[in-house]
Amino acid sequence: VTRTPAGAVGALLVGDSLLPRRQVGPESGNQLMITPVRPMDELRREALAASPPAESGSFRAPDLVELTTLDSSIHLEIRYATSNNLFGTPFYSQARAFLQRPAAEALVRVSAALRARGYGLLVHDGYRPWYVTKMFWDATPPEKHIFVADPAKGSRHNRGCAVDLTLYDLRTGQPVEMVSTYDETSARAYPDYPGGTSRQRWHRELLRRAMEKEGFTVYEAEWWHFDYADWRRYPIMNVVFEELRSAYLPQLERRRDPQPQLHAVGDPVAERLHHLGVRTGVAGINGALEGGEPAREMLRGETGHLEVRAKRVAGIARRVEDERRPEVGDARDVLPHVDAREVRREQRIHGDGVVERDQHRFDVLVAEVGMIGSGRAAGVARGGRVAGHDRQSRHSSV
Fold first, then answer.
1. pLDDT, tens only, 50-89
2. Comparing C-alpha atoms, which of 364, 312, 363, 319 is closest to residue 337?
3. 352 vs 373: CA distance, rounded Å
4. Pairing relationship of beta strands 222-228 and 216-219 according to DSSP bridges
5. Beta strand pairing status for 75-76 and 119-125?
6. Is 184 left (phi over 0), alpha (psi -120 to 50) or beta?
7. Structure-model confidence comparison of residues 357 and 17, the more confident one
8. Helix (H/G/I), strand (E/B), else coil: 233
9. What residues contact residue 70 under an 8 Å CB cut-off, 6+ apart?
10. HSE on the CB side for 384, CA within 13 Å?
């Protein structure tokens, strides 16, 4: 066996045969790059002048959330805001990552689960304006088109429901080793590629299982790309980061209206949704009801889903009210997202420590309520009492 200066195997002698190391990708392990088929400045001008494909059907109103505002342990390495990317040129003017709210909240749950294993999430990309997807496609050689989305169909990144990410080690803060580099256009990028080291494959599988548990699906050609389950319910968007607030602020403000008015007063579907505090708001409910029976059918399904969630939250609230010092197993059943360290801390609690434990569980309850967007339920919960003490959430927002 011979080794490279970095310590990797350089060649292996088997009998009389010398098997040299096959180099795939850059020796340093940095970003693999491809040569654009046309000048990027020319492609940018064309993409900015073009329009996304027209879509039919009913969609949810966009509700993009910046990931780092929900979970500070989610780190960013936005390659497309730098020249360290597939094409060697910046595409974004700001290094930020956004997802639609349900996808963002699911990612926060993934982050919590992985923290218990000693890992954090390192995000490379989230929501991507459509014109950037068109630039990718037009710049990529045809034989590499499997690695980029067709702008005629739009990308799930354009809908705010796809995320590119990897793991980092909480102890060192450094990214872990994966079988391939990010955005690598080789067979190593496939999520089931059998090569690499056992540790690299273990990291890849750990990320995949954690993401799939929360409703994400890995893309068949990229281990780092995950699509959220509801991506079909959101439209293709083409708004740059700098203009997101101005583009969606009016509808976001309407959702915060404390006294909204339903057009369809008395409509059982609309009123059930409104009672639950659906995040799309009254304006979204009114608009969907105007879309005819297909839209109403979608609302019925959404109502059933939300009511199941509401019942689960109510169950947690009852347990918080009734229990004083549950066994460790009960704590895991009620709050599956509490990690092992939290459970061990509960075992050591005595006396007034019950209040601190219940405060933590109440915070998780408020987070659960926030996931279904029920401002009414959150208000009721904040007025409750646990173990004979008034409880106020430490979170200003969820």
1. 999 999 889 999 999 999 999 999 999 999 999 989 899 9
2. 364
3. 32
4. antiparallel
5. parallel
6. beta
7. 17
8. helix
9. 104, 105, 108
10. 24
Residue that is written with structure tokens 């019925």 in the block: 300
Task: Supply the pLDDT for residue 301.
Answer: 57
Strand partners, 20: 11
Tokens 């496609």 found at: 137
pLDDT higher than threshold 80 for residue 350: no
In three-state secondary structure terms, 383 is coil
> From CA 197, how far away is CA 202, in angstroms rounded?
9
What integer best gives the mean pLDDT of the chain? 73
Smallest CA-to-CA distance from 40 within 94, 83, 78, 77 is with 83
Confidence of residue 8 (pLDDT cuts 50, 70, 90): confident
What are 308-323's pLDDT values in tens digits?
555 555 555 555 555 4
Burial 116-128 (b: 16+ CB within 10 A, else e): eeebbbbbbbbbb
Nearest to 388 by CA among 332, 326, 314, 323: 323
Question: pLDDT tens-digit profile of 194-230?
Answer: 998 999 999 999 999 999 999 999 999 999 999 999 9
Q: CA triplet 137, 141, 142: central angle to 5 degrees? A: 80
The H or E element that residue 139 is part of is helix 130-139
Query: Phi/psi at 79 (nearest 5 deg)?
Result: -60, -35
What residues are paired with 122 via a beta bridge?
75, 166
